[in-house]
Amino acid sequence: MMPSRVLIISPNWIGDAIMAQPLLQLLRLRYPDVAIDVLAPAWVAPVWQAMEEVNQVHESTFKHGKLQLKDRWTMAKFLRTLNYDQAYVLPNTLKFALIPWLAKIPERIGYLGESRYGLLNVIHYDDKRHPRPMMAFYAALIDKPDGNIEGRFESLHPRLHVDEKAVDAVKKKLNLEKGTMIVAFAPGAEFGSAKRWPVSHFSALAARIIQCYPGTQIVLLGSKKDNDVCEAIHSNVPGTLNLAGKTSLKEAIALIAGIDLLVTNDSGLMHVASAFDLPVVALYGSTDYRHTPPFSSQSYIMSLDLDCAPCQKRECPLGHHNCMEKLMPSLIFEKVKEIVTSKYLR
């Protein structure tokens, strides 16, 4: 049966939400007239609002790790009135599978996760021995559990869209001059310190860029949790602008749409820049760039590929953090220089 209304239950992370967009692109290709709505946490909602495939975003107030059964029941009652034909449950927990079941949505699709038999009635299985990139992982939900998404997925990439007026407005608010080259750094990472390039390295890179390209504005992006890291870089290099926690996600997305280059740890903002097809220099150590790579046509993965990496740990289990410590600023600057030269001196 051709669905007329579909609900996507969002992951809790910005990067995962963006990497789920190919699923929506495939839905739109298969069912051109379908209305696609999203249930998402407030802190992720602006990402979905920047996707052309999304009809409406319902913001949830669920707290991470909390059951909040009464709140889920209230949300389910509301969703029941909207008569969805299908729900794609992207988080792997029981808590999120409860919502479409309580809402009596006929077809409830997702991975088995926490043994969600009954709550889901179209169950997919993930082979932990052969993990797929996250975009393919989510996109595979469009087919039957034994279907093969490979080949049809590769031409689809996340794309965000922001009105040019919103870009100009946020630049004006932050006193960023028109025509100035803007290089953004995203030095934070939610997962833990093992993912983070050292503050000293970001600082050295910032100083070198400002020295070689006078007038360049370097902006430091992140949430309130990243303020200490960003402030440390700003203290080392006063010419930088610390915006961590000072912009909403909606404003940060609009600002990223107007930058020239992003240097970033493996983070949600990396995927935001990729979705605008911007130059992205992505720094990898403890995480696997084959699993969550940047996907811009101008993406550059910088990794030493040490024998101990990727360890997938929050903190370096060997205590030396060589995967990031030995990824030297001079190497990253050469890549930045290559990008700037190709972008401005063609």
TrEMBL record:
SUPFAM superfamilies hit by this protein: UDP-Glycosyltransferase/glycogen phosphorylase (SSF53756)
Catalysed reaction equations from the record: an L-alpha-D-Hep-(1->5)-[alpha-Kdo-(2->4)]-alpha-Kdo-(2->6)-lipid A + ADP-L-glycero-beta-D-manno-heptose = an L-alpha-D-Hep-(1->3)-L-alpha-D-Hep-(1->5)-[alpha-Kdo-(2->4)]-alpha-Kdo-(2->6)-lipid A + ADP + H(+)
EC number of the protein: 2.4.99.24
GO CC, alphabetical: cytosol
Alphabetical list of InterPro entries matching this protein: Glyco_trans_9 (IPR002201), LPS_LOS_Heptosyltrfase (IPR051199), RfaF (IPR011910)
CDD domains, alphabetized: GT9_LPS_heptosyltransferase (cd03789)
Transmembrane segment boundaries: none
GO molecular function: ADP-heptose-lipopolysaccharide heptosyltransferase activity
Lipid biosynthesis among keywords: no
Enzyme superclass (EC): transferase
Entry superkingdom: Bacteria
GO BP: any one term: lipopolysaccharide core region biosynthetic process
Keywords noted in UniProt: Glycosyltransferase, Transferase
Gene3D superfamilies recorded: Glycogen Phosphorylase B (3.40.50.2000)
Family that this chain belongs to: Belongs to the glycosyltransferase 9 family.
PANTHER family given in the database record: ADP-HEPTOSE--LPS HEPTOSYLTRANSFERASE 2, TETRAACYLDISACCHARIDE 4'-KINASE-RELATED
Record protein name field: lipopolysaccharide heptosyltransferase II
Species per Swiss-Prot/TrEMBL record: Oxalobacter formigenes OXCC13
Gene giving rise to this polypeptide: rfaF
